[in-house]
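Please think about what follows:
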Amino acid sequence: MVRAFITLCLTICALATPVAAETKANTLFGAKQDGSNQKPHAIGTYAKGCGAGLVQLPETGPTWQAMRLSRNRNWGHPEMISFLERLSTKAAAQPGWKGLYIGDISQPRGGPMVSGHQSHQIGLDADIWMLPPKRLNLSRKDRENLSSISVRSKDQTSVNGNFTAAHIEIIKAAALDPAVDRIFVTPPVKIEMCKTATRKDKKWLQKVRPLYGHHYHFHVRLKCPDGSRLCQTQKPTVAELSKNGDGCDETLNWWVTDYLNPPKVAKPAKPAKPAPKKRGARDYTMDDLPKQCAKVLAAQ
């Protein structure tokens, strides 16, 4: 009888034990369908944080369309939404461009995602397609099935025929926007822009950073907005990374040489102990995020 009573107590206690602390943060944030009713605030870092009071980019605007609507990732800090609206207006002035096709920004409350990005967590990152929009009346189905275009050659060392002067003008317009911290592009794009920019007009290239991938889209990252005191702008700065230059130096060549074909290194006689697996955004629990993210998650 006593043993049965103890077993019953243990069962009840187990059922009552909270498991939220161990639930993956991406599951919790991915389940939210709307932004929080809070003052807009980017919290934490681009790859470990959340966003309060994020707003939704309208699915279609006069010079843009949000793509892959099923993901519900067209949410961002109001500063990001305003930036995308003004950049799309400039894009629409380019020959053959009706505006912009905009990919992932953030989830309704930011945070880690169940698939894809490690960053895009605080409403200040956005992916912009390299595909020039020919029309802005795509259906929801169209937006799920249409693909962007690659602007990188098959051998990954140069741009291909899809990359045009219009792409350069749009990326330049983004870089000149004071709200922008940096822009990630496939290395061949940075190399091509360094070749074509005039010596007197290259300072803006400091914000354009080479990064593997990013040949179907370019990735814009904004600075922490005024008032977001819990937000951490990325370090090192673009000025530090380029040593106060434009980034058009010998370091660019590494991306299309040693990065693609790493020099062979002699193997050690004794195998090294495997390094522990590095935790990524999809491993985070709420304990890994800034404590204010729990309030964002619980808000109406």
Confidence is low (pLDDT under 50) at residues 1-21. The chain has eight helices and eleven strands.
